[in-house]
Amino acid sequence: MTGVSAADADQFFADVSAASDKAEWAAIASVDGNNEPRVRMVHPTWEGPVLWFATSTASPKASQLRANPAIDVQFQVAAPEFIHVLVHGHCEFPEDAETRQRVWDLLTYDLAAFWPNGVTDPDYIPVRIVPDRVELSEMFGTQNKRIWRPG
Among 126, 142, 5, which Cα is nearest to 54's? Predict the structure, then answer.
């Protein structure tokens, strides 16, 4: 296991983003009101050391993450690479118009399929994942493991 230095963070997150793009989908884990784990698939996008996805303001994942913002994310790239990206952090729900537009433009799928009224649709909310730990490895975490932690 190798820790990622501040000097290597930009390259690390470029590698993490490239691996995540190969996986396309990610599983997120949240906790519901009964303290039960819930796992869902999302299509997040990296912006440097921050991970974004969008959801409905009325979705169970939004209400669960607002109540308990702790989140785990896993990307798994299939064979032959078997690249593994794990993210542990917390969620924030920015509601300002500038961030809503930036994330609308940043995400790599057509959000209008979910929010046909566009970026001002009151049901659209970007979710910012602020990582406390990011792991990039191969073979399910057993090889070439690199771990980033802030500061």
Answer: 126
